């Protein structure tokens, strides 16, 4: 095969008006290629450039990785995600494993995906805003694919006082919603708190305080 047969020349570059940031490369062979501007910059795909035929596959793989990256960015606009959530999402969208890992690695390098920061923020919000206990939070983070080490760090970051406040608020609310004699109501509240992931000792203490507060209100 001659040198000319191994190389194609970019004769014209046009902006793709239907997709932002993408361009159509027209070759002297009559074929065309649609790529993202980041790929153009990486491979210097400018008008007049000669491209080796065996380089086209590399360009296509790079563009596929960029597509995965852009789609992941859109997915992250709604809310933060874990590394595994992004991997699952892109895999479900049909991207090849190589493109998925390339996109995820890029997101991590840019600190747009950070499992440790995500886990700590999740633990804080679930503790303070949703009155969830650490066992419940641990299971949620496992389901999201967060590694054990990051989960352990997130659970360690939970303020015991904030967890206790959450348990007390949840216990007081549940107490008002239950019926029956005080002992039965207390058992229901304890079971409720255990399902929310609170340790047994904290659940019992919070339920007892809810009962005392209810008695004080009745006496008043």
Structure description:
One of its GO terms (cellular component) is cytoplasm. This is Regulatory protein RecX. Its main location: cytoplasm. The chain is of the alpha+beta class. The protein has 4 domains: 45 residues; 60 residues, Orthogonal Bundle (Arc Repressor Mutant, subunit A), CATH 1.10.10; 43 residues; 49 residues. The protein has 10 helices and 4 strands. Helix 3 packs antiparallel against helix 4, helix 5 packs across helix 7 and helix 9 crosses helix 10. The radius of gyration is 28 Å and the shape is rod-shaped. The relative contact order is 0.08.
Please give a handful of descriptors for the protein shown.
single chain, 220 residues, alpha+beta, Arc Repressor Mutant, subunit A, 4 domains, 10 helices, RecX_HTH_1st, Regulatory protein RecX, WH-like_DNA-bd_sf
Please outline what is shown here.
With about 220 residues, the chain is α+β, with helices and mostly antiparallel strands. Helices cover about 65% and strands about 10% of the residues. The chain is rod-shaped and about 90 Å long.
Stretches where pLDDT falls below 50 for ≥5 residues? none
Portion of residues in helices? Answer: 55-70%
User: What is the rounded distance between the termini?
Assistant: 98 Å
Query: What portion of the residues fall into strands of 2 or more residues?
Result: 5-15%
Annotation field: number of helices: 10
Counted up, domains total 4
Please identify the top-level CATH class of the largest domain. Answer: Mainly Alpha
Sketch the topology as an H/E string, one letter per element. EEEHEHHHHHHHHH
Mean pLDDT: 91
What is the tally of beta strands? 4
What is the gyration radius calculated from CA atoms? 28 Å
CATH architecture of the largest domain: Orthogonal Bundle
Shape assignment = rod-shaped
| Biggest sheet features | 4 strands, antiparallel
